[in-house]
Amino acid sequence: QVQLVESGGGLVQAGGSLRLSCAASGITFSRATMGWFRQAPGKEREFVAAISRSGGSPYYADSVKDRFTISRDNAKNTGDLQMNSLKPEDTAVYYCAARSWGLPNSGTYYKLSEYSYWGQGTQVTVSS
């Protein structure tokens, strides 16, 4: 049974930083593409970042580019999302996601449907 467990969420002031972590089990993590998504109240879940199996190809939503950094440690079966210069509009529940193969050849790494496994989410609240 695949499990993804996020941690690291919390309350932070605008301009601050948080680091989210995702611990994976039940999956060959080194073969899995990993992504982060978020869902704000009343809004649809949206893509934040994705990273290839080797960690060499990160992708970001325009809204977080140059502020967020996705990374992974295949030896520890973990993935992280470092979030800097946080804004109130970054407030959302953040979800870790994974798929048991490489990045989509179609380039659709930003689509929810490309990911088979999801964590339960962790709340990030940024106060102004």
Structural features, described:
This protein is mostly beta strands and 128 residues long. The chain has no helices and eleven strands. Strands 2, 4, 5, 6, 9, 10 and 11 form a seven-stranded mixed β-sheet that branches. Strands 1-3-8-7 form a four-stranded antiparallel β-sheet, with no helix packed on it. β5 and β6 form a beta hairpin. The model has no long low-confidence stretch (mean pLDDT 96).
SSE diagram, text form:
Blueprint: E1 3-7, E2 10-13, E3 18-25, E4 33-39, E5 46-51, E6 58-60, E7 68-73, E8 78-83, E9 92-99, E10 117-118, E11 122-127
Parallel strand pairs: 2-11
Antiparallel strand pairs: 1-3, 3-8, 4-5, 4-9, 5-6, 7-8, 9-10, 9-11
Shape: globular
Low-confidence runs of at least 5 consecutive residues: none
Major pleated sheet? 7 strands, mixed
Cα separation of the termini: 40 Å
Helix-and-strand structural type: mainly beta
Estimated helix fraction? under 10%
CA-atom Rg in angstroms:
14 Å
Average pLDDT, to the nearest integer? Answer: 96
State the oligomer: single chain
Q: Report the sheet-strand fraction.
A: over 45%
| Secondary structure: number of strands | 11
Structure annotation, total helices: 0
Output the helix-strand order. Answer: EEEEEEEEEEE
Annotation keywords:
128 residues; mainly beta; seven-stranded mixed beta sheet; four-stranded antiparallel beta sheet; 11 strands
Summarize the structure.
The chain is mainly beta. It contains no helices and eleven strands.
